[in-house]
Specification:
Length: 257
C-alpha cells in the first residue's frame, strides 16, 4: 500500500481529452483523497525549485517568461515537436514529481487515495506508488474535439500533441480498470461506481478493515454535505433532535402506571 496510513492508492491516467477530470470529480464525491500529480509537476517546475534550474540549463533562457517563471507555452512548443527534447524534460521533472507525490501519499488519511497523472505509467509512478491503475479512455476524434473546444487549440495542434503521448492502447493494456468516457455522464458515473464498489478495501480480506473504512467514507460524505448545504444540514439536525425528544417523552408516558 502507498500511504503511511495504509491507504489504497489508485493511479488514474489517460491521454489529453479523455476526460480524467470528470472521473476524478466522481471519485472525490465518493470520498477519495486526490493528488493531482500534474499540479505537483507544475509546483516542482517553479522558480526556486531544483527542476527549474535544470530546465533552464537544458533548454535555454528563451523558455523563461517576463515574470521569471517558466513560459509553459514556449516550453510546450519546444518539446512537443521534438521527442528527444520531451524525453530530456521528463528525465528532469519525473523524479522530482515522484518524490513530492510520495510525500503526499504518506500524509494521506483517507482509505482511498487517487493519484492523477497523464504520465503515470511513463514516470514509473504506477509501479512505485500505486496498488491499481485506472485508465480513462475515449476515441481519438472525441479527444481532439474536446481539446479544440476546451483549450482553444486547432485540431491539427491537438493531433500533434496526442501523437507525442503514449498510445491509449498501451495504457489500456497496463490497466486494472478501463473507464470508457466516450458516452454521457451517467454512464461514466455507473462505471466508476462499479469499480469503486469492487475495491478490496470495502470489507474484503487483507490489510484493510472494511467496516472502519466504510465509516470513514460515510463521515467524509456527511462532512462535505454539511459544507455545501449548511442551512439544510442544521434543519435536519434540529428535526432529528426534536423527534428524539418526542419519542423519549412518549416512551416515558407509556411507561407511567
Amino acid at each position: 500500500m502507498g500511504g503511511a496510513g495504509m491507504s489504497y492508492v489508485i493511479g488514474l491516467t489517460g491521454n489529453m481529452g479523455t476526460g480524467k477530470s470528470t472521473v476524478l470529480q466522481i471519485l472525490r464525491e465518493l470520498g477519495a483523497q486526490v493528488i493531482d500529480a500534474d499540479a505537483v509537476t507544475r509546483q516542482v517546475m517553479r522558480r526556486g525549485e531544483p527542476a527549474f534550474d535544470a530546465i533552464v540549463a537544458e533548454f535555454g533562457p528563451e523558455v523563461v517568461g517576463p515574470d521569471g517563471e517558466l513560459d509553459r507555452a514556449a516550453l510546450a512548443r519546444r518539446v512537443f515537436s521534438d521527442p528527444a527534447a520531451l524525453r530530456r524534460l521528463e528525465e528532469i521533472v519525473h523524479p522530482a514529481t515522484m518524490a513530492r507525490v510520495r510525500e503526499e501519499i504518506a500524509r494521506a488519511t483517507a482509505p482511498v487515495v487517487v493519484v492523477e497523472a497523464i504520465k503515470l505509467l511513463e514516470a514509473g509512478m504506477a509501479r512505485e506508488l500505486c496498488d491499481a491503475v485506472w485508465v480513462v479512455d475515449a476515441p481519438e476524434e472525441v479527444c481532439i474535439a474536446r481539446l479544440a473546444a476546451g483549450r482553444g487549440i486547432s485540431p491539427e495542434e491537438a493531433r500533434r500533441r496526442l501523437a507525442a503521448q503514449t498510445p491509449q492502447a498501451e495504457k489500456r493494456a497496463a490497466a486494472d480498470v478501463v473507464i470508457d468516457n466516450s458516452g454521457d455522464l451517467a454512464e461514466t458515473r455507473r462505471q466508476v461506481l462499479e469499480a469503486w464498489q469492487a475495491l478490496p478495501v470495502w470489507g474484503h480480506a487483507g490489510k484493510h478493515q472494511g467496516s472502519k473504512e466504510k465509516m470513514h467514507m460515510v463521515l467524509e460524505q456527511l462532512r462535505r454535505f454539511w459544507e455545501r448545504h449548511p442551512r439544510l444540514s442544521s434543519w435536519v439536525l434540529l428535526s432529528a433532535g426534536m423527534l428524539a425528544v418526542f419519542f423519549w417523552a412518549a416512551r416515558d408516558v407509556s411507561a407511567t402506571p
